[in-house]
Hints:
- The complex is a heterodimer.
- Chain A is mainly β.
- Chain A is 0% helix and 59% strand.
- Chain A has no helices and eleven strands.
- In chain A, the strands form two sheets. In chain A, strands 2, 4, 5, 9, 10 and 11 form a six-stranded mixed beta sheet that branches. Chain A has a five-stranded antiparallel beta sheet with strand order 1-3-8-7-6, with no helix packed on it.
- Chain B is an all-beta fold.
- Chain B has no helices and eleven strands.
- In chain B, the strands form two sheets. In chain B, strands 2, 4, 5, 6, 9, 10 and 11 form a seven-stranded mixed beta sheet that branches. Chain B has a four-stranded antiparallel beta sheet with strand order 1-3-8-7, with no helix packed on it.
- In chain B, a hairpin with a 2-residue loop joins strand 5 and strand 6.
- Classes of the chains: A mainly beta, B mainly beta.
- The interface between A and B is medium-sized, with 23 and 27 residues.
Amino acid sequence: KQEVTQIPAALSVPEGENLVLNCSFTDSAIYNLQWFRQDPGKGLTSLLLIQSSQREQTSGRLNASLDKSSGRSTLYIAASQPGDSATYLCAVTYSGAGSYQLTFGKGTKLSVIP
Amino acid sequence: GAGVSQTPSNKVTEKGKYVELRCDPISGHTALYWYRQSLGQGPEFLIYFQGTGAADDSGLPNDRFFAVRPEGSVSTLKIQRTERGDSAVYLCASSESQGKQYFGPGTRLTVL
């Protein structure tokens, strides 16, 4: 069974700092990996999607990397802002799952202090 | 265009009652997913529809849970004889076949 782990569970940083969120998964046979943002009481917003053949994706101040062989992904956030405060979820699609269902980690709760 | 919508946004019910949760996917999306998110956890997969049929219901926790998508668009998740442990946020997502999934805002279910 595919398991996804996110470390740390919570992170507090001062505004302007660069930070890294970590995600690991147990089965390297993935189809893709996504990073989501979830604000309190809201649904999920997809930030970046990395296909299994890719090494990284970038969007604005966000950069996500993927190392399939080691079962790891990182989300790098540059020059953090208070508006970045949210829970960040990592999810993988296992290539053996015909439904392309997402398997999520528990998330990292980020607080950016002004 | 409009995103995925879910109704109601909040549902409070008593233990033992029956509830229905509705999901309106993005128009034209053939794939529809239901997930359940308990407090402090990531979402967990419940069921997947491709068109009108439930292609994968392996995530449904027991036979009190059932979902339909009769016309290949709107889907309803049905929970019979609700229990306090069913309290969670129920999320719906849709996608174009195997593409990126777009999530709705969720329905927060509270079973008293």
